[in-house]
Design goal:
The structure holds two protein chains of two kinds. By secondary structure, chain A is α/β, with parallel strands linked by helices. Chain A contains eleven helices and twelve strands. Chain A folds into two domains: about 240 residues, Rossmann fold (3-Layer(aba) Sandwich); about 70 residues, no CATH class. Helix content of chain A is about 35%, strand content about 20%. Chain B is about 35% helix and about 20% strand. The chains are: A alpha/beta, B alpha/beta. The interface between A and B is large, with 45 and 47 residues. Chain A: This is Peptide ABC transporter ATP-binding protein.
Chain lengths: ~325, ~325
């Protein structure tokens, strides 16, 4: 833990500045998936990213890893802009970052044995050494994620969803990364299995000092795992705060509606909460509304919101929101 | 008639390459008129198979009902001919499916998909059916229903398609609505809209609802009574308050404990249920939860417990811990 604290004070591990990612969808139209995203991730922290489907959270995660080339902006990893890297330097950077995917059924090659799946990044980066060493590394990775060494020779179809997700985690850990993007890493799992995988992710963070960008739509789980939470809507970051703070005192009307929409298990002790039910659907990111992206569904919207894009500003210490009235 | 629907000792299996998958193993429950009942369980627990058996939607082969009966308004649905069943489906029992993206016909307008049932079951004329369909679309909260009536599913968003599904399911005023994971594919803000709509319709039209879900939060929003399923069996039933305040089956308890709560202190560890559900090709002889249960006893290994009454109310749990003989041990 002590090494962790030293790292934490050394400045952000990851710094995203004005990142945009637009996709061309034909007929001269562009889909603006991510717009002017800026955030920092400290070493050893978990930053949660929440939002509804289509809000750009997965695109943001993938662009930050440079799985997509950005339309504008930069991502600095330990001070280096990763979009400027080429060749061997780019390859070396890829070792520092990894990803855990949503669907444990689609993200593992069914024709590869578990050993080959986990060792693929080792082979690519030439970290495996001899075949004996490779085997040993695979076995220790399997044990690290709570599987057994003899699982190495089996194939993905022999495993349950939770076990497959563990294999995906072992693969992500193979190159010893510092930063991992978990894109809906537990959404496809059953409730009782979700808790197993979340606990594993937290244990690994503690023992290896990992930094997570945890993308999910399950707000209770995000609160549980994250130090800070970013809320996205229609490609824009609308609020960013310490997770306790965000859930206790949401400032953006979208965050307020999102939090009030979580169905809660009534234990009878809590007061029934007041629910803000949003009307209408998410506007299209091809043709977003003028001004504030949320104004078409916002209960507080005024003319100012249609005319002027609200600035993303610090409304209280460490608590940022993009709303004229926050 | 006290019960509108009573399922008793239902066994449904599938023939598979490796043998017989026993998806549902002796499920019994009742639904009263106007009541909203939730069936909760993880994937593979048999909850959807139970629902689809009520609607007789499972293809046979590979599926077959081994034993049991499904009595609906005095008739055993399992004994009806296919023709008779057609008049029950859509008319007396409506169903909402999980995936609004694939359960609508992409080649038919939304309007035609709603009027189909109205014309067939209620003998309405085309124009009367259209008027009713437009009314239904506005009932489920679709803006501009006249224009939407003649559009195809691809111009509807996910939430709107699910509303259209609900409109189809409600078109003939069914006495029972079966909703199989109706909000799983939707975002939370849209989910809140759909749940509000279902609650509202239940109140206004007096429809009984069977809600199938894995999300305990959704259950507490809509339902009065909860049925918890595990490995093809009912392991606990009770009112929503009983199940959430004092779950009596170790599985239900584990399920509730493994979910994070919003008011939980930060970085408190979740308590997961270890292991994974049993293989339904060879279900265990004793209690199906035994291998994952922290309270497992010798008796659990080879003897399947019955649903035992817990406390004074109607709560029941399928667990040896609630057997009168186990009480002394528990207290010790």
């Amino acid at each position: 833990m002590s090494t962790l604290n030293v790292k934490k004070s050394a400045g952000p591990l990851l710094e995203v500045n004005g990142l945009s990612k637009h996709f061309s969808v034909g007929k001269g139209q562009t889909l603006k998936a991510v717009n002017d995203l800026s955030l920092t991730v400290q070493a050893g922290e978990t930053l949660g990213v929440v939002g509804e489907s289509g809000c750009g959270k997965s695109t943001a995660g993938r662009t930050i890893l440079r799985l997509y080339e950005p339309t504008a902006g930069e991502t600095k990893f330990e001070g280096t802009n990763i979009y400027k890297l080429k060749g061997s330097k780019l390859k070396a950077m890829r070792r520092e970052m990894a990803m855990i995917f949503q669907d444990p059924y689609a993200s593992l090659n069914p024709r590869f044995s578990v050993a080959d799946i986990i060792a693929e990044p080792l082979d690519i980066h030439g970290l495996a050494g001899s075949s004996k060493e490779r085997k040993k590394k695979v076995e220790s990775l399997l044990e690290m994620v709570g599987l057994r060494a003899e699982h190495a020779n089996r194939f993905p179809h022999e495993f349950s969803g939770g076990q497959r997700q563990r294999i995906g985690i072992a693969r992500a850990l193979a190159v010893n990364p510092k930063f991992i993007v978990c894109d809906e890493a537990i959404s496809a799992l059953d409730v009782s299995i979700q808790a197993q995988v979340v606990n594993l992710l937290q244990e690994l963070q503690d023992s290896l000092g990992l930094t997570y960008l945890f993308i999910a739509h399950d707000l209770s789980m995000v609160k549980h795992i994250s130090d800070r939470v970013a809320v996205m809507y229609l490609g824009h970051l609308v609020e960013l705060a310490d997770s306790e703070d965000l859930y206790a005192d949401p400032r953006h009307p979208y965050t307020q509606a999102l939090l009030s929409a979580i169905p809660s298990v009534e234990t009878g002790t809590e007061q029934p909460k007041e629910r803000i039910v949003l009307t209408g659907d998410l506007p299209s990111p091809i043709n977003p509304p003028s001004g504030c992206p949320f104004r078409t569904r916002c209960p507080l919207a005024t003319e100012k919101c249609a005319a002027q894009m609200p600035e993303f500003r610090e409304v209280s210490k460490g608590h940022w929101a993009a709303c004229h009235y926050a | 008639m006290e019960n509108m629907l009573s399922v008793s000792d239902l066994h449904v299996s599938f023939r598979a390459r490796g043998g017989e998958v026993q998806a549902v193993r002796g499920v019994s429950f009742e639904v009263k008129p106007g009541e909203a009942v939730a069936i909760v369980g993880e994937s593979g627990s048999g909850k959807s198979v139970t629902a689809q058996s009520i609607m007789r939607l499972l293809a046979s082969p590979p599926s077959y009902v081994k034993q049991g009966s499904i009595e609906f308004m005095g008739r055993d649905l399992l004994r009806l001919s296919d023709k008779e069943m057609e008049s029950v489906r859509g008319k007396d029992i409506g169903m909402i499916f999980q995936d609004p993206m694939t359960s609508l016909n992409p080649t038919m307008t939304i309007g035609r998909q709603i009027t189909e049932g109205l014309i067939k079951h209620q003998g309405l004329s085309r124009s009367a059916a259209k008027a009713r369909a437009v009314e239904l679309l506005s009932l489920v909260g679709i803006p501009n229903p006249e224009a939407r009536y003649s559009q195809y599913p691809h111009s509807f968003s996910g939430g709107m398609r699910q509303r259209a599904m609900i409109a189809i399911a409600l078109s003939c005023n069914p006495a029972l609505l079966i909703a199989d994971e109706p909000t799983t594919a939707l975002d939370v803000t849209i989910q809140a809209q759909i749940l509000n709509l279902m609650k509202d319709l239940q109140k206004r039209l007096g429809t009984s609802i069977i809600l199938i879900t894995h999300d305990l939060g959704v259950v507490s929003e809509v339902c009065d009574r909860v049925i918890v399923m595990y490995a093809g069996q009912v392991v606990e039933t009770g009112t929503k308050e009983e199940i959430f305040r004092s779950p009596q089956h170790p599985y239900t308890r584990g399920l509730i404990r493994s979910m994070p709560h919003l008011d939980q202190p930060k970085h408190e560890k979740l308590i997961p249920i270890p292991g994974s559900p049993p293989d339904m090709l060879q279900p265990p002889a004793g209690c199906a939860f035994c291998s994952r249960c922290e309270h497992a006893m010798e008796v659990c290994l080879n003897n399947d417990p019955e649903l035992l009454k817990v406390g004074e109310s109607g709560q029941q749990a399928k667990c040896w811990l609630h057997h009168p003989l186990a009480k002394e041990v528990q207290q010790a």
